[in-house]
Amino acid sequence: MSFGTRVDGRCVEAALRHCTALTALSCEGCLALDQAPLMASRTLRQLRVGGPIASLRMELPSLERLDCSDCWQLQTIAWDGAPPPASGVPLERLAASSCAMLRCVAPFLAVCSGNVTELDFTSCDALPPAELCTAVSLCPHAVELGLCCACVHDGVLREACRVASGSLHTLALSIGAAVTAAGAGELRQCLLLQRVALPRSVTAECVADLAAHLKNLRAVELMENPSVDSGSVAALLASCTALDTLTMCDCPRVGDAAFEPLACALTPGAGAVLAHLAIGDSDVTDAALLAVAGRCAALHTIDLSGDVRVTDTGVAAVLHGCPRLAVITLQRCLLLTNAVIAALAAAHKRDCGAVEFLDVYGCAAVGSGALSALLDAVDLRQLNASALVVERLEAARLPAWGGVRFFSTRNDWDP
Q: Which of the two ends of the chain, N or C, has the fewest CB atoms closer than 10 A to its terminal CB?
């Protein structure tokens, strides 16, 4: 069941009383839900709440999934009414991202059965550190933890590693989390960890150490990190042979040497496992791109935004060696010319590729003529370019270009 924008708390309470077999309810976008209705139902398993609600009171003994993301005024999530079942509420997933005023949630988790596998507190910056630490301690079977919030520190991370080291697969920390290298080192005991986003405070030595212990890593994010260097990234590529996603935008100490161990880090004869690579605003040149082109045949996404030392030669090599590329971001690569657009058209013609997105915003030497020819050859869905180029393409739009969307937007890394 789903409610509209004008539904208030009384309507929700009435619906739950009368619909005795209801298993799923969505109140997303209910802007009149500014009261604190008592969500009471013995059968409800899934609840999605949105709007300006300040307190979420529940008597839902069968609840398995709770999503209150974007409840910007929500302060408390609590059990109310009759005593909870002796075995606990069978909650498996709690999503509370962007609940910027949330301050109390641990008492609710305390009445659950302890089987929560997904917990997301992204942007819950008002959560007291002690409250977050207690909430994490009540989820010993957590598989995914979203802790991208300002209150995270070494103690929270240490508790997460202590209680969920045997189950944790995914961990996201905010760029600015107050986590030291010693705190991040606790992750060494999470041997099943596959996906991790680390704060800018993590050192190069810590990254290399984690790479030596966490052999199952598949995705690593290191954003705006002034310490991570080529050596630590090389250690990551050499040790974590299952790595398919590497994101390290604005890491100025990462250069070509980071990609030297690709040959020994990948399965012989199978090409690279990397599918997504973002190395924007780094110190790489064509040498790094040649290494990627030779080993990353499965590459689907590449982001080189702000890599001012790469040229047509390096990008053309990637286009030639990575036939599965679908998303190509070359924003502010100042040395690129129309030649790279011609190389993309040729690669598409040769491999019958599926390029869907191209970003050449800030590439001053890439003109509308070359892009027009590309649109004749490639079935693009989205193209980002300078305002003048987009204006000319819109004026010359042909039916053969289909529904391609033009836009002119700087990305997050543009100063």
A: C
The DSSP-derived string for 185-248 is GGGGG-TT--EEEE-TT--HHHHHHHHHH-TT--EEEE-S-SS--HHHHHHHHHH-TT--EEE-
Per the document, the length of the chain is 415
Question: What would the two tokens of residue 144 be?
Answer: 């995914």
Dist CA 108 CA 10 (whole Å)? 23
Cα distances from 95 to residues 28, 68, 121, 146, 410, in angstroms, run: 13, 6, 7, 9, 30
| Residue 66: CA count within 13 A, CB half-sphere | 28
Angle at which helices 204-213 and 230-239 cross, to 10°: 10
Q: Do 289 and 312 meet the contact criterion of CB atoms below 8 Å apart?
A: no
pLDDT, tens only, 362-371: 999 999 999 9
Query: pLDDT tens across 80-138, in order?
Result: 878 888 889 999 999 999 999 999 999 999 999 889 999 999 999 999 999 999 999 99
CA 158, CA 164: separation in Å to the nearest integer? Answer: 10
Which residues have CB under 8 Å from 352's CB, separation 6+? none
From CA 232, how far away is CA 295, in angstroms rounded? 19
Phi, psi of 103, rounded to the nearest 5 degrees:
-130, -20
